[in-house]
Amino acid sequence: VQLQGWGGLVQAGDSLRLSCAYSGRTFNNYAMGWFRQAPGKEREFVAAISWSARFTYYADSVKGRFAISRDNAKSTVYLQMNSLKPEDTAVYYCAASASGAQAMNTPSAVNYWGRGTQVTVSS
Asked: Is pLDDT above 60 for 1?
């Protein structure tokens, strides 16, 4: 099972899109999501999307700035991040959950993790 994401280094106010390609099994019936972990902090929920892409959920800290989407035909989930702030700096992990998108607001609901990708937002 592979969950691979790609991040980057940007300036405050910039935009960045994370992609996560999943392979090795069928995740099309899993909720997919993103978490992040800043240095010295616990891993926290960012966003989740249902298997059908009909439902999306966001942490309050990113609501209105980030957008999650998925393309099941390409086995890829995306996180569009706009108006980035230095406090968005973290390692971002894509994740898959069989518990559904609404329940995917805690790391304990995740069945599979991606390897993580660094996002750094400079001020």
From this structure: no
